[in-house]
Amino acid sequence: MGSDNTPRKPDSRRLTSKADRSAYIDNFRIWLTAMVILHHAAIAYGGSGSWWIKDPAADEISRFLLPLFNAFNQSYFMSAFFLLAGFFTPASFDAKGAATFVKGRLMRLGIPLIFNAIVLVNVTRFLIRAGRDEPFEWIWTTATTHLWFVQALLMFSLIYAVVRLVFPRAKPVKWSAGRYPSHPQLLVTAVLLAAGSFCVRVFYPIGEEWFYLQLGFFTHYTFCFFIGIVAYRGDWLGRIGKTQKRLAKGIAISLIPALMILGILGGILDDSERFVQKVSGGITWQSLGYSVWESLAMVALITYFLYLFFHRYNRAGNINRWVAANTYGIYIFHAPVLVGFNVALLPVPIPTIAKLVIAAVGTGLLSLAITAVLRKSAWVRRVL
């Protein structure tokens, strides 16, 4: 199968400074941040996963759609965050040098982790206990909770710095330099990722943590951070062809019934808890099937969204730029804000989807407002 790899619009290697970063990258980050909020809101109201508050879905449609949404979202959105983080890492290191790079990462990533452990976790606990009319005690915890991504990114960044210091002249091979990987390369990638995820989940099933990190997902996350670095060196982003976009979209759509078939054949209708256990890891065909499905979904959805944002959403006005500048803060603050909405809506007798919409939209807007106010401080802007 061929691919249309004609270079398009701006050179993605130029996306290394605030002045010439293309709008589609920022718009994609806004989308991914919104998906984080919606993902956690969906979990709270009947989707699959763990969250501080559970308000079970009150209707069959929500009980069916929300887990499906979580499965699709989980397959790509955090992997896409790692890919973008990896993409901007080499330029940052090259411009700043090792010492300044490490100092900047410790400040930008380490301070939010400490703040989360001291303040945000306790604010979240206070809101939950207040809703239950229970006593509250301030605690200190090392748990990174929703900032596990920040924890992982700090680890990846420090490892990258060490590798660059030990091998100062080494740079990733410019695989397919100047063009996005071909269809066969993407297919092989998905197969290898599926095999890696399946093997890791034999020992670390989905849901089981190691130092607050779910290693069952880290085959994808580690790969995407690394491939982001390679994408920067090879100038991949913005070079996805129409044929690749069409194939990626077709695969993504076909994966919806494929996931339903996997669930039905895997026994979800007979014993949903047993199905979740089998699909989460171990030597089961359900785990292998889900690893294949998830890897295909990740490759297809990231490819499709990169094309879509580059060609359709590559413009930004003042509002877009303002929101993009605040996305990191939104990510940091959204958990206690969302829990506040969850607690407030618990006794409200409205449909599940209405609760989800109110909680998600309210969380996004309030988290944006909090971040915007705090970033008026020059010191806070250095971190957020």
What does this protein look like?
This protein is mostly helical. It has one domain (about 10-384). Helix content is about 70%, strand content about 0%. It has 12 helices and no strands. It has helices spanning about 25-45, 60-130, 150-165, 185-205, 220-235, 240-265, 270-280, 285-310, 320-325, 325-345, 350-375, 380-384. α1 (about 25-45) packs parallel to α10, α2 crosses α3 (about 150-165) and α4 (about 185-205) packs across α8 (about 285-310). Mean pLDDT is about 90; it is low at about 1-20.
List the SSEs and their pairings.
Blueprint: H1 23-44, H2 60-131, H3 148-166, H4 183-203, H5 218-234, H6 242-266, H7 272-280, H8 285-312, H9 318-325, H10 327-345, H11 352-374, H12 378-383
Helix pairs in contact: 1-2, 1-8, 1-9, 1-10, 1-11, 2-3, 2-5, 2-8, 2-10, 4-5, 4-8, 6-8, 7-8, 10-11
Order of helices and strands: HHHHHHHHHHHH
**Cα-based radius of gyration, to the nearest Å:** 21 Å
Alpha-carbon distance between the two ends: 44 Å
The counted number of beta strands is 0
Q: Number of folding domains?
A: 1
By DSSP (H or I, 4+ residues per run), the number of helices equals 12
The percent range for helix content is over 70%
Beta-strand content: under 5%
**Could you report the average pLDDT, rounded to the nearest whole number?**
91
Unreliable spans are 1-20
Per the principal axes of the C-alpha atoms, what is the gross shape? globular
- Protein structure class: mainly alpha
How can the largest sheet be summarized?
none
